[in-house]
Structure formats: C-alpha cells, structure tokens
Specification:
Layout: H1 3-8, H2 14-30, H3 32-38, H4 46-64, H5 72-90, H6 98-110, H7 114-126, H8 136-158, H9 164-185, H10 187-192, H11 200-204, H12 210-219, H13 224-244, H14 256-275, H15 289-315
C-alpha cells in the first residue's frame, strides 16, 4: 500500500494503515489479474478494494490451503472463529486481526451490508462438505455467496451514476462471471481438492462424469467428450459476461477503467483456455504478459481521458439559472445561382 493511497483515503491511524497494507499484499500475491485492474482506480478507493479482496482470499485460504492437522472440523472451527471476530468488529469491538480490522473499517466507511459477509462465509463453509453441484441452479446458489456478494460489496466502493439497486444485478453477474472463469481455468486443481464445480448436468450432457475427469487428469489422456463439456462451460460463462456487460456504463466514470480492464482480462482467460484446446485438466491456461500489458495500457488511457473530461467539465462556466445557453450563430451558405 503506497503512502499516497493511504493519504488519499484519509487513513492515518497506524494500526489501520498496517492492516490495509497487509490486505494489499494478499491481493497482489494471489489476485494478480484483479490487482492489476485495481491500480486503475482513484487512489482513495484502492485500500477498500484491497480490504474486501484480502478478506475473501484469507477466508478462502482457511478452506483450501494445506496445513498440518488441518481437518475438516479444524477448518470449520477456524471459519467460525473468523465469523465471530468479524461480527464483533463490525459492531465496534477491537481486534488484533489486521484483515478483519481493515474490512470492518471499509464496511463502516462505505455502508456495506453485513449480510454480504455472512453469505460469503456460508459459501466458504459449504466448501468443507459439498464436493459437486448437480445443476447450474445449485451452483448459482453457491456463487451468490462466493462471488455475487463480492460484486455487491464492490459496488459500494466503485459508485454508480444510477440508483445502486439498478446496477446491483449487473454487479452480481460480473462477480459470477469472474468465478465461473476461475472454475474453468482451475478445473484440474479443484479436482485434486476433491471438488467439481462444473454442474453435473452440463457434464452429463456430453457423456462426462467425475470418474472420466479423474482418469484424464491422472493419465494425461485427452477425451473429446471432456473437450465438448469444457467448451459448453466456456459458452455458459460468456453468456454471464454478456449479462453483466451493460453494468459497466452504470458505474461512476472514475471506476469504469478498472472494471472494464478486469472484464477484458478475465475474458482473455477464456480465450486462453480455448486457444490451448481446453486442456485445463492438464495445465493452467495463462494470459500472455503482452496481452496483460496491452490491456492495462488501454485502461491507463481511459483513466487519462476520464480525468481530462472531469477537468474540462469543472472549468466550463456554469449557465446562470433561468438563462438559456448562449446560441452561436451558424452561417448559412448562399444558394448557388
């Protein structure tokens, strides 16, 4: 966390500054795509985004990261302790946990509804016992807590040019689109953790089940049925991006370059999966550095254009109330004789 960002956000308390800096490190280490996009936000809003994503990453790690003696019961107890700590802090109690301190401060500052955090932790808790999803509707219910609420939390920080309830469905859809992208990219790694997030009904439509996925993962053998199922999952995900896309224009102009860049970069992951022949069971598809850099450069150009527009608007003289704007006469050419 740069001093400039913390100063711009008005964060002066040393403990809070350290807490936000810790969240920034979590986001930069684990969320490279979104961290890159976040740098396009106005400096004052970046700490809040790092707090929200740092908290999400920390809770997710409690569920997924290996560790000595990390039983299911132990992970459930850790999530319970985290939820209690967060709820106490949201009510104003002090805490020594830096991530909780930062995210509680962000929630209070931006008026983020506490139920979003409860819904998120409920989905994290389900990962301890739920290993697959029979239907897409089942998966959407899980993703409400694991992804949609992150979009809704972010909306408070990003700001909108319409009432927030109008933008909320698009923000939730974008969170889901990002997570579906991750599910497709990480299908092999998730399988190693014992989970299959792609809906069983989608897989079965192409003759695929968990056993076939496991054999392909273990042997390295490709199967056209799996390729067809993964292609269908990618098309499903692109449909959710189309659902979310109109929401970009509803955001505060200062926030649009960040979210548009994230939109493009996550969409590029789908392109990378396709270009690699849907081989995600065997290797992770990656967006090239050149494409990431080009996308970021485009985002910087949009940031510059937005700031220039804001400056020009601020300098434009206001029209006095009740007086119509000055009309500039337009010369009319004489008719040709």
């Amino acid at each position: 966390m740069t001093d400039r960002e913390l100063h711009a956000a008005g964060i002066t308390d040393p403990l809070l500054r350290a807490a936000y800096a810790h969240c920034r490190r979590l986001n930069s280490r684990h969320g490279k795509t979104y961290f890159l996009a976040t740098r396009l936000l106005p400096a004052a809003r970046r700490p809040a985004v790092h707090a929200l994503y740092g908290f999400a990453r920390w809770a997710d790690d409690l569920v997924d990261e290996p560790g000595a003696g990390r039983t299911t019961a132990g992970r459930a107890a850790a999530l319970d302790a985290l939820q209690q700590c967060l709820e106490d802090c949201l009510r104003g109690a002090p805490t020594t946990e830096p991530v909780v301190r930062a995210v509680a401060h962000t929630a209070a500052r931006y008026g983020i509804e506490h139920r979003h955090f409860r819904d998120f932790l409920a989905s994290m808790r389900s990962d301890l016992t739920v290993t697959d999803y029979p239907t897409y509707a089942d998966l959407r219910r899980y993703m409400h807590g694991s992804a949609a609420v992150l979009g809704l939390q972010m909306l408070q920080v990003l700001g909108t040019v319409v009432p927030q309830e109008e933008a909320a469905p698009r923000a939730a859809a974008l969170g889901i689109a990002f997570q579906l992208t991750n599910f497709l990219r990480d299908v092999g790694e998730d399988l190693d953790r014992g989970r299959v997030y792609l809906p069983a009904e989608l897989l079965a439509a192409h003759g695929v089940d968990r056993g076939l996925l496991r054999r392909s993962r273990d042997t390295g053998a490709r199967d056209p049925r799996i390729t067809a199922a993964l292609r269908a999952a990618a098309e499903l995900t692109r449909g959710v991006y189309r659902e979310a896309a109109p929401g970009l224009a509803l955001l505060d102009p200062a926030s649009r370059p960040c979210i548009r860049t994230a939109f493009v970069l996550y969409g590029a992951i789908l392109d990378a999966v396709r270009d690699d022949g849907y081989a995600v069971l065997h290797r992770r598809a990656r967006v090239t550095r050149r494409r990431r850099a080009a996308t970021a450069a485009g985002g910087l150009a949009r940031v510059a254009a937005t700031r220039l527009t804001a400056r020009l608007t601020a300098r434009r003289p206001a029209v006095p109330p009740g007086r119509p704007p000055r009309q500039v006469p337009v010369p009319v050419p004489e008719e040709a004789s």
